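Render this sequence as a predicted structure.
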Amino acid sequence: PPELSCSVRNIGSTSEGRDMIVFTVSSGQASRGVWLDSTIHAREWLAPATVVNIMNKVVNEYGVDSEVTDMLDKHDMHFLPVMNPDGYQYTFTNERLWRKNRATNAGSSCRGTDLNRNYDWKWGMEGVSNLPCSDLYCGASGGSELETQAVQNEGERLAGTLDAWITFHSYGNMWMHPWGNTINHAGQTCERADDHAEMFALAEITADAIQATFNTRWARGTSCEVIYETTGGTDDYMKGAHGVKHAICPELRGNGFIVNQNQIRPSFEEIWNGLVAMFAEL
């Protein structure tokens, strides 16, 4: 098969000194890119398992599988499988359902910030907590956390080259896009972006392809409408601050954070079908 270029970058270190590693896969043909990350919430183990399977597929089947080849001839792919390595490690050693990072909080014995409330875009407005002991603690300020800063910097570095940014979570069978906030943060009506119709049309195509794989049901739409209001999340930040057209937050299959390993393969298969449908439209 033709040669791929695969590169590894350390985009930053955590408070406990773990590296944040981004893998970029390129055919050398593309001028545009797509970003995929996971494990911003430490306990969501199905997300990195799914993303690593996507990585494995594109690295090993370029030039063999026509869908992979077509994808990579049009888009470089940037992968950050573990955005929150300190929290992720902690779920293996101490507390399986830990969500946040593991940074200390000034004046509190409770550790960690919810990194998906910490981005510097409408930070601290809705769906967050200012209490360090809360799972929804948004941090001391927008972009206060090392992990958030590293990913924000990548968004800035890649700004203008990305057609999509996909930040994978679990669980609940949802394919969501901005915005997460309500109009004027009044809690009455969810705000929709000016290009909502275009984002939603792509979400429909993608979610329909996911559903068709195993005859499942997937909600789709703004994260505010599909799940609840939030601010300071990855997808809103990447769209708002860096103009990424399709900033997407999927919630993978299932009804819990602890899933049987037999769910890893079907999760990959259905999401892969969704990505194939999505990439064809980008």
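Summary. The mean pLDDT is 97. The beta strands are 5-13, 19-26, 32-38, 75-80, 162-170, 174-177, 219-222, 246-252.
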